[in-house]
């Protein structure tokens, strides 16, 4: 039943040779480049911001990093123990994005961006989480549209992302403050010159 639903949704979303070229180009950008928002936003939150918010921002970055490590570990295990061919490997639909024929479930791109979005919903602001969730949905759509993932790969990524955030919250309660102090000390040592010049926050 799930496989039937998976195929039905895939055929509904997947592009065809008759699809508009501009829409395929937009999907290619979303599928390959939009994920860059994750490291860029993390770096920005760590290095800059209002002085009274920097500590909270850095703790958020560490919690998100913990969540992504857990999420990607779960994703790796699922892909290893429950391998699932990608659509093009099964000769289903059309493929417009070159990709290795490795296991598709759950999506790594989806896991990272949905973990990021859920983390912002839970630990930052509702509006920022909603924006990132919209980015996540765009990435999820694009990778199905271009034929490298099934729709359920993306749903699985969302569930894994939620699991990663829940695990990170538990880990933070046990190790978070001590980990934050250690990383903060390492950062201040490595970026001492830039901090003194006022290019980044202390």
TrEMBL record:
It catalyses: di-trans,octa-cis-undecaprenyl diphosphate + H2O = di-trans,octa-cis-undecaprenyl phosphate + phosphate + H(+). Its EC number is 3.6.1.27. InterPro entries: PAP2/HPO, PAP2/HPO_sf, UPP_Pase. Keywords: Membrane, Transmembrane, Transmembrane helix. The chain crosses the membrane at residues 22-48, 60-83, 103-123, 130-148, 154-175. Residues 61-169 form the Phosphatidic acid phosphatase type 2/haloperoxidase domain. GO terms for molecular function: undecaprenyl-diphosphatase activity. It is an enzyme of class 3 (hydrolase). The keyword Transferase does not apply. GO terms for cellular component: plasma membrane. It holds the Pfam family PAP2. NCBIfam families: PRK11837.1. This is undecaprenyl-diphosphate phosphatase. It comes from Kosakonia arachidis.
């Amino acid at each position: 039943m799930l496989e039937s639903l998976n195929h039905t949704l895939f055929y509904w979303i997947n592009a065809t040779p008759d699809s508009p070229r501009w829409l395929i180009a937009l999907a290619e950008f979303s599928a390959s480049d939009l994920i860059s928002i994750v490291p860029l936003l993390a770096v920005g939150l760590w290095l800059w911001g209002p002085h009274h918010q920097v500590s909270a921002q850095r703790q958020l970055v560490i919690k998100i990093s913990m969540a992504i490590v857990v999420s990607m570990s779960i994703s790796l295990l699922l892909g290893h123990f429950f391998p699932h061919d990608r659509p093009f490997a099964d000769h289903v639909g059309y493929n417009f994005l070159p990709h290795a024929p490795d296991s598709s479930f759950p999506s790594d791109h989806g896991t990272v961006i949905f973990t990021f979005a859920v983390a912002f919903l839970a630990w930052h602001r509702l509006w920022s989480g909603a924006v990132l969730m919209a980015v996540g949905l765009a990435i999820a759509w694009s990778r199905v549209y271009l034929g490298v993932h099934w729709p359920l790969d993306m749903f699985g990524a969302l569930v894994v992302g939620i699991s990663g955030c829940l695990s990170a919250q538990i880990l933070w309660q046990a190790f978070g403050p001590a980990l934050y102090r250690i990383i903060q000390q390492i950062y201040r040592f490595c970026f001492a010159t830039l901090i003194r010049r006022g290019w980044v926050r202390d």
